[in-house]
Amino acid sequence: MYRRVSGTKGLEGEWQGESLQASNGQGSVIVVEADGSDGLAFTLEGFNASVKARLDGRDYPFTGPMFPPNYTAALKCIDARTLQFDEKQAGKPTFTRRLQLSPDSKTLHMTYTAADGTKPFADVVYER
Fold first, then answer.
1. Which domain holds residue 122?
2. 124 DSSP β-pair partners
3. Could you give the number of structural domains in the chain?
4. 57 φ/ψ sector (left φ>0, alpha ψ -120 to 50, else beta)
5. What is the CATH number of the domain that holds 48?
6. Could you read off the pLDDT of 81-118 as tens digits, one per residue?
7. What is the pLDDT confidence band of residue 48, given thresholds at 50, 70 and 90?
């Protein structure tokens, strides 16, 4: 199960995973921060990875040792509580990551779906 460590409303804040761990033994922590007027910065602390993207559907690079060169994400807003990352490796779609915040802002549900649209291959829940 995952819980919110900081922040009170919306997606911004720190989300701590207690069951998923990085290879260095640290728990899965996602920090979400505003980046300008229409962007967000996502940091995966235990994995030493991040991406800063605007909500414009354009490709932005991931950084960190767990991502190969030319790995990108296009971020778009689906609705008031849902964001979607369309991730690519060297321009070729790899998978879609969808983040959905519960109506009470206490749970963050993250679903990964293969690029070909097949059923989700990972389903992660972060709880406040």
1. 2-127
2. 110
3. 1
4. left
5. 2.40.128
6. 999 999 999 999 999 989 888 888 877 888 888 888 77
7. confident
